[in-house]
Amino acid sequence: MPERRSTNLAWFGVLPVVLVVAFSAVIPLMTVVNYSLQDIFDLNTRVFVGFDWYRETLRDPRFLEALVRQGLFSMAVLVIQLPLGILVAKGLPKSGWRASFMLVLIALPLLIPWNVVGTIWQIFARPDIGLLGAALAGLGVDFNYTASPVDAWITVLMMDVWHWTSLVALLAYAGLAAIPQAYYQAAALDGAGPWEVFRYVELPRLRSVLIIAILLRLMDSFMIYTEPFVLTGGGPGNATTFLSQYLTSMAVGQFDLGPAAAFSVLYFLLILLMCWVFYTLVMREAHE
Predict the structure, then answer these.
(1) In three state form, how does the secondary structure of the chain look?
(2) Less Cβ around it within 10 Å: N or C end of the chain?
(3) CB atoms within 10 A of CB 227
(4) Number of separate domains in the chain
(5) How far is residue 200's CA from residue 4's CA, in Å, rounded to a whole number?
(6) Is position 99 within any domain?
(7) Does residue 265 lie in a domain region?
(8) Distance CA 231, CA 37 (A)
(9) Residue 245: which domain range?
(10) At what angle do helices 61-91 and 52-59 cross, to 10 degrees?
(11) CATH label of the domain that carries residue 163
(12) Would 6 be classed as within a structural domain?
């Protein structure tokens, strides 16, 4: 047999991807880091301030309030959507045209643009003309998401659950479909009930897809912007002003590029740290 020689020419095939990533991600990130270390008065006047903007951001009570608000929202999203998505996936048909029809039907909310989702729920939850608002008003429930912070929170949370639970359900359905029937047959021979089958057969084999679902929903919910901006505009007051909305108002509304850049870097590092810690803990538990 001819001797095979190792070569590094295959790396040239990856080079276009590296260049695209560098242009679309690394270079803008470095630009933001550069801005975060300067006080920018105009395009030609800048003063180096070091880490002053970072210290100012971490001491900003509005930033801390938005951070707490963001964390509570992300936790609520995960607590609701994960069990609900698994429940929906287990209730779907396993095969046939009904399964295909239901999968397409469930995936429809994922195809709707984010600004359209906010507009739909803005109309749907209105107490005067919206179906949800009018129904609650007919039941005697005083519901007004434009005036009550609690109602605004509930509406934003319901909107996110409606929009993104489909993603969890589709991932869970794919994980359930990959489980061999032999496991179910063995569980039936052992006399296992529905809960035992879910606990000892399905849930362990859903671990990988649930990790993906949690990471996707954690990152996406922590970066939510368009839907609550269209629905409530961050109100009433600052009740639904999350980190992304506060950052946008600082960068675009006030044109404070230096503080906004420092805010952006901290925002990015926070999301990266959360995902890394979660992934590390889950994988460590999986290997024990």
Answers:
(1) CCCCCCCCCCHHHHHHHHHHHHHHHHHHHHHHHHHHCEEECCCCCEEECCCHHHHHHHHCHHHHHHHHHHHHHHHHHHHHHHHHHHHHHHHCCCCCHHHHHHHHHHHHHHHCCHHHHHHHHHHHCCCCCCHHHHHHHHCCCCCCCCCCHHHHHHHHHHHHHHHHHHHHHHHHHHHHHCCCHHHHHHHHHCCCCHHHHHHHHHHHHCHHHHHHHHHHHHHHHHCCCHHHHHHCCCCCCCCCCCHHHHHHHHHHHCCCHHHHHHHHHHHHHHHHHHHHHHHHHHHHHHHC
(2) N
(3) 23
(4) 1
(5) 47
(6) yes
(7) yes
(8) 35
(9) 62-287
(10) 70
(11) 1.10.3720.10
(12) no
Q: How far is CA 156 from the centre of its chain?
A: 13
Distance of alpha carbon 266 from alpha carbon 215, whole angstroms:
19
> What's the pTM?
0.83
Pairing of strands 38-40, 46-48: antiparallel
The tens place of each residue's pLDDT in the chain, 288 residues long, gives 455 555 566 677 777 877 787 777 777 888 888 888 888 776 677 788 888 888 988 898 888 898 999 999 999 999 999 999 999 999 888 878 888 898 889 989 999 998 899 999 999 988 888 888 888 888 888 888 888 899 999 999 999 999 999 999 999 998 898 888 888 888 888 888 888 888 888 888 888 888 888 888 988 888 888 898 899 888 888 888 898 888 888 877 777 788 888 888 998 888 888 888 877 877 776 665
Q: Are 261 and 33 in contact (CB under 8 A)?
A: yes
- 143: which 2 tokens? 């519901």
